[in-house]
Amino acid sequence: MRPLIGIPCCIKAFGALAMPNHAVSDHYIRVVMGPVGGVPVLIPAAGEDIVAEMLPRLDGLLLTGSRSNVQPSLYAGPPHLEGTPEDAARDSTTLPLIRAALAAGVPLFAICRGFQELNVALGGSLDQRIQDLPGRMDHSTPVDQVLPKVRTGKAHAVRVAAEGTLARIWAGLDWQADAVPVNSLHNQGVARLAPRLVAEGWAPDGTIEAARVEGAPGFAYGVQWHPEYDWQTDALSRRLFEAFGAAARRRAEGKEERLVPAVAAE
User: Fold this and answer.
1) Per the residue annotation, which of 10, 112, 117, 139 is the catalytic one?
2) pLDDT by residue (tens digit) across 68-90?
3) Are 23 and 30 in contact (CB under 8 A)?
4) Can 139 be counted among the known catalytic residues?
5) CA distance 198 to 190
6) To the nearest whole number, what is the mean pLDDT of the chain?
7) Catalytic residue among 139, 156, 186, 226
8) Which of 53, 113, 139, 257 falls between 20 and 30 A from 67, CA-CA?
């Protein structure tokens, strides 16, 4: 039985009337059905009320990237610049979902906006426009690149902790701890790291690009880049999803084992 992987939706406007839709990029569907080896389950951006009923049915939680930014009020930050996209419905769903998933030991993998949500959900804060800060790089999408290269092209290198979770996941692969090329595309990033997060990857300007949840009972990791775009050609990206998928399968198998005695008793 393949594990059920929850993917929280964004609210996006579609059609001539700009009707609000609950949506997830196809990249995440494909990666769950590919190297994760699971069945994607879309979680509507319907708020905290659905968390308690949906979470026990899931074997993993994949938090996606998005154009929208986490609301500053959730981390006591200043208001966004006018025109900055937000998604209050997604925020109201993902933040309580993250905390509940970690408490229940549900494997969790957070990507880009999802990584920022993970940090905020656990008490951290965000820099809203890294490129405007002194001495920092522009991590945003390059305007001189065209799709799909902009999604798969390596923006910069990341220095990775030699003894951390990433190092264990990537054991046996060809990589250098001080220069892992990543396709990092973002404006916001971690400012104050949440108390439960341990940084494991840094951009050349010091921006935190990867972290694990300290003391989490299951797989719980976040990256600021986009491995869902290049897992078919990048071994490091693929291995991240394989590790997440393996954790989700273990959880699914544990559920199945617990059900067997109950079924037999009937």
Assistant:
1) 112
2) 999 999 999 999 999 889 999 99
3) no
4) no
5) 12
6) 91
7) 226
8) 53
